Amino acid sequence: MKKIKWSKILVFTALCLMSLTFLYPLIFMAMTAMKSGAEYLADPFALPKSINLDNFEALISRFKILKNFMNTFIVVGASVVLITIFSVFASYAFTKLRFRGRNVMFLIIISTMFIPAQVTMIPMYVIFAKFQLVDTYTGVVLSYLAMGMPSTIMLMTTCFRGVDKEVMEAAKIDGAGYFGLVANVIVPMGIAGIAMSVITNFIGYWNDLFTPMILLKSMDKRTVMVALSSLMADRTSVDPTFQMTGLLISVVPTLVIYLLFQKYLTKGLTAGAVK
After folding, report:
1. Is 225 a domain residue?
2. From first to last of its 275 residues, what are the pLDDT tens digits of the chain?
3. Residue 115: φ, ψ to 5°
4. Is residue 8 part of a domain?
5. Is residue 44 situated within a structural domain?
6. Would you say residue 24 lies in a domain?
7. Host domain of residue 148
8. Do residues 83 and 147 lie in contact, with contact meaning Cβ atoms separated by under 8 Å?
9. Phi and psi at residue 43, in whole multiples of 5°?
10. Structurally, how many domains does the chain consist of?
């Protein structure tokens, strides 16, 4: 009979407690979303008496949350796609091509990561206003491009450095050009870093409140986080169960993205580790 290792039991118990700590807010939101207002006020921490979807229906019909979701998908989707495409080609150039000023240019791009977005927002807003990009999806997407490309380029550059030169030389002998190398060699071999950047950028911009709140003025263009912030601020006329329902729905897309790409996220995090 094997001896019980108390150290493993303690580690397992600690991990379970940590998992429960992180999951409890989601569990509480789900429980609250299925309650009526009176049921919530009677006991906020009690289990719902029955599965009640009235809050979800009210959120869709009364607060038009689906429109906010569509706005967010447009802005975040366009931003993530453009950042990924531009960063793939830029990272390929910085790692596999030789040209004058390469290291200086890379250093300048990476250094912009240390500038807070709040510092650049005012001059960016002035520039966007001059070119009539305020209150447009294009303005938000350009803002995300400026903020997201430096970190994405740094991540992909680290990942692309691991692509073997022999593989690229073999592809060149087979007649692959610049775009062929990127599409058939760099992207498949660097998919872990690319997927990781997609996940981090999607989650970061989906949860972003600051940029769309500053640049988007029209009510029909608000993203889901801006709409939820207004919902959370209205504590007099809005039921708390509506607020929790909105928060619960807003978490779903990020969870889906994470679950779909979690294996690539793990590979991306360990890409630079010692094997």
Report:
1. yes
2. 455 677 788 888 888 888 888 888 888 888 888 888 788 888 888 888 877 788 888 788 777 788 899 999 999 999 999 999 999 999 988 988 888 888 899 999 988 888 888 888 889 999 999 999 999 999 999 999 999 999 999 989 988 887 777 777 787 777 777 788 888 888 888 888 888 889 889 999 999 999 999 999 888 899 999 988 887 766 555 677 888 888 888 888 888 888 887 777 666 555 544 44
3. -95, 120
4. no
5. no
6. no
7. 61-269
8. no
9. -160, 100
10. 1
